[in-house]
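Design a sequence for this backbone.
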């Protein structure tokens, strides 16, 4: 596998890791939102707010930055190898 393919693989893994977790949170939130708005379930409204906070924290979570750093490091390594091969 060449380095470009490794970079693509790294990007794919990071995206999958990040967005899978967010999708799960949003699916749970969607179900609770339906219960809150359609059935008037107050506790479901509290869960919606809690899940919204979790999504916000997920976006600002330091692990997310670490995941993006993996992509940056792989891209930097690829650029260095390309410049050395010239």
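Sequence:
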């Amino acid at each position: 596998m060449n380095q470009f393919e490794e970079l693509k693989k790294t990007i794919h893994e990071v995206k999958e890791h990040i967005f899978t977790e967010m999708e799960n949170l949003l699916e749970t939130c969607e179900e609770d939102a339906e219960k809150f708005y359609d059935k008037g379930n107050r506790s479901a409204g509290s869960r919606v707010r809690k899940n919204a906070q979790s999504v916000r924290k997920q976006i600002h979570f330091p692990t997310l930055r670490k995941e993006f750093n993996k992509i940056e490091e792989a891209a930097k390594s690829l650029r260095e190898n390309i410049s050395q091969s010239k």
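Residues 3 and 78 are 6 Å apart (CA to CA).
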